[in-house]
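Sanity check. The docking grid for 1-deoxynojirimycin depends on where the pocket ends up, so I'm generating a full predicted complex first rather than guessing from homology. Inputs follow.
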Amino acid sequence: MAGNGWWRTAAIYQIYLRSFADGDGDGVGDLAGLRSRLPYLRDLGVDALWLTPWNVSPMADGGYDVADYRDIDPLFGTLADAERFLAEAHEQGLRVLVDLVPNHCSDAHPWFRAALAAPPGDPARERFWFRPGRGPSGERPPNDWRSYFGGPAWTRVADGEWYLHMFAPQQPELNWEHAGVRAEFEDVLRFWFDRGVDGFRIDVAHGLMKTPGLPDVGAAPDPADLPYQDHEGVHEIYRAWRSIADSYEDPRVFVGEVWLPTTAQFVRYLRPDELHSAFNFEFLCCAWEPNAIRKTIDDTLDTHRLVGAPPTWVLSNHDTIRHVTRYGREDTTFDLGNRRHGAFTDPALGHRRARAAALLTLSLPGGVYVYQGDELGLAEVEDIPLDRIQDPTWERSEHTDRGRDGCRVPLPWSGTEPPFGFSPPGSAQPWLPQPPAWSTRTVESQEPDASSMLRLYREALAIRGERLVTLPESITWLTSDDGVLSFRRGENFACVANFTTTPARLPAHTELLLTSEPLAGGLLPADGCAWLAL
Ligand code: NOJ
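Predicted complex below; grid placement will be based on this.
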């Protein structure tokens, strides 16, 4: 199956479980809510779902701090609910990927509790990175590493030792040199595969191994050579996991969250005996600018071809600024280290470009990710009151970075005021406040409107499923006017995107399949994208 799996062309919808649909009325999304909305996902036309973490967790980082890898957090339901959900999703023809968080666990995990209860030097501490501090009384951290959320990557415990956490202090890094850690995660993979999970999204896939000795990064580190990421030893872990996935009759798949500065590093995770696919963050971060986009598309296709992996395309996820907002800004790139909260954005421009971007990404070869709310054209919520912010980034950055809550606001389903059908009537308030203006962005309001983002996604996904997924994994660029990108897939399909501020001519075609904006006098409007039958 290796060459032709479903995952090579899949449209995968990302469910941020806490914010998708609330079934039990506590203001937090859950499995009951998700199960009730499966018909919506089937009708949208996606092939698979990726669920962000559902395991038992104190939720210090939205579930990316796992205390029990084999059970479901009570906030979301029970293991029996998860099994029912898997069966129902499969009945609707939807595959299911879930998040695996192997780089770190929760400080509430029994392993970390045991490590804390044990004295320095005890084997219970070897599953983590405990070290004495520097300085005469060990009062300084063991090295100069910084947490991705801000502040030092080390926290000191009562007996004076320090432990490593590249994210929040509640997320101690696991030591992947420890055989017991490896064995545990291999067992966790089997646990969920045996329950019908079709694959895993691997959190921080590039981070599991560290350079021995944990050397300082120094004052001017080379981003391609950091001691806490992309260590050669990580590949052996994925080879072992791949053989487990391949041992199932219906082989299971992995998609890696691999944030690395060079494609040469990135592509090594996609070798045929490692991960099946990885998110294309280069594309996500790219400016909405034709030369940059064209280069990114070419680079993506070239590098993936080298290892035989399918390219993927992604515009937004639960860690980024929603692209409707990004594309309305002067600087349309995304930078994980600088989200530019509050930068001026033109919502109408961002919306138009987001429609064009939807058609562009859905027409490219390979797999594509849709983040919940992309299909509703949701913008980043930039005015969440400071006392409601939940993302640990806010505290860790000493209140300089509002973090990621603005793209995690619960979805608007129906009605004219919050909670917009997210929770049943009479429920607790949603865990993050929804903007009143979302009354025009609900599923209910968009369904009857042929010009809505939701209808555009539905039509595009349907056409993609019927005509595009069987085409070869390549594109042919067509000659086009400056600022216009035009390419052909196979003999009979073309996609044209107009990045200029004036209407553009379309190549000769037999049928206009779909456009993000209505044509005017046969021309494609500014910021528009069209699909053509040739
Ligand atoms: C990446 C996840 O997408 C993000 O939400 C999380 O905070 C970090 N990994 C740490 O697990």
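Relevant for the grid: Residues 61, 64, 101, 167, 203-204, 257, 318-319 surround 1-deoxynojirimycin (CB under 6 Å).
Also worth noting: The chain is about 25% helix and 15% strand.
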